[in-house]
Amino acid sequence: DAVALLEDEGTTSVLWQQVELGRASTTARVRVATTVGVSGDAREAFRLRASELAGEPVLLQLQQLPAAAGDASALQALLRGGGDRRGVGETWPETVDRARATLEQAAWSLPFPEGVEAVGVALLLGGGDDGVVADSAEVAYLAAEPLEPQTAEVLGGFLRRMVGHPALRTSFYRAGPAVLALEPEDTAALGALVAMLRRYPGLRVGVRSAATDTAAASALLNALRSAGVDSVDVERRSEQGPVELRLRRAG
């Protein structure tokens, strides 16, 4: 199997693969969890072997999801239904705070693509004979671009298995890039930011500005605080540039 050429026990595991047949060539789409990345030699070996087996050129579209050391094989087992399905908790938490903490712990461990960071979890909760039941969980993340639907589907599967809740509905919300442009007079944008911060308690906001640009930074700080943002991080930088509104995960 040509796909085996991309795998390396303990560092790289194939999570998903799809073959698209074309008129003159074939495209293989492969997603892996990896701690070190797939080398150029491994990708070339795959293309040569796959082309030999197919009897025509095979193009490789490879998506690499970074995983912590030792987790690549575990992620593969989770996706394929093996391993310990209970994950973070042996039983589902009985309080809202504990349910949120369990989901956040799992969300922080998800193998997001490079440049993507989870910053918060919002829950829709219901009650049952066994206590609190989270019907759905929305994970907020920071990224320059939205996640591809297939990536979100894979990450949602990880999350359900990690918390031992196979019926949990999952979605992923792009809170924005890590750096935003926001004018103090833009009340609509300020209101949306405040609502997002309340929805995701794990999200923090900061203002970064040049040491000489105190007036613009103060105006933005005052606008944030007037809008109801209680805690704002302030950072001064030595180089010149516009005042930046920065989002990050607390802690």
Lay out the secondary structure.
Elements: E1 12-21, E2 26-34, H1 40-54, E3 58-66, H2 72-79, H3 96-108, E4 117-128, E5 131-142, H4 149-163, E6 169-176, E7 179-180, H5 187-199, E8 203-210, H6 214-227, E9 232-237, E10 244-249
Parallel strand pairs: 2-3, 5-6, 8-9
Antiparallel strand pairs: 1-2, 4-5, 7-10, 8-10
Structural commentary:
This protein is elongated. It contains 6 helices and 10 strands; from the N terminus they run E-E-H-E-H-H-E-E-H-E-E-H-E-H-E-E. With 251 residues, it is α/β, with parallel strands linked by helices. It is 31% helix and 33% strand. The model is unreliable at 78-91 and 126-133 (pLDDT under 50).
Encode the helix/strand succession as letters: EEHEHHEEHEEHEHEE
Query: What are the segments in which pLDDT stays under 50 over at least 5 consecutive residues?
Result: 78-91, 126-133
Instruction: Give the radius of gyration.
Output: 22 Å
Q: Overall mean pLDDT score?
A: 76
Distance between the termini: 44 Å
- What profile does the largest beta sheet have? 4 strands, mixed
Number of strands: 10
The best one-word shape is elongated
The secondary structure category is alpha/beta
In what order do the strands lie side by side in the largest sheet?
7-10-8-9
What share of residues is helical? 25-40%
Strand content: 25-35%
Number of distinct helices: 6
Key descriptive features of the protein:
251 residues, alpha/beta, 6 helices, 33% strand, elongated
Question: Short description, anyone?
Answer:
The protein has helices spanning about 40-55, 70-80, 95-110, 150-165, 185-200, 215-225; strands at about 10-20, 25-35, 60-65, 115-130, 130-140, 170-175, 180, 205-210, 230-235, 245-250. By secondary structure, it is an alpha/beta fold. Mean pLDDT is about 75; it is low at about 80-90 and about 125-135.
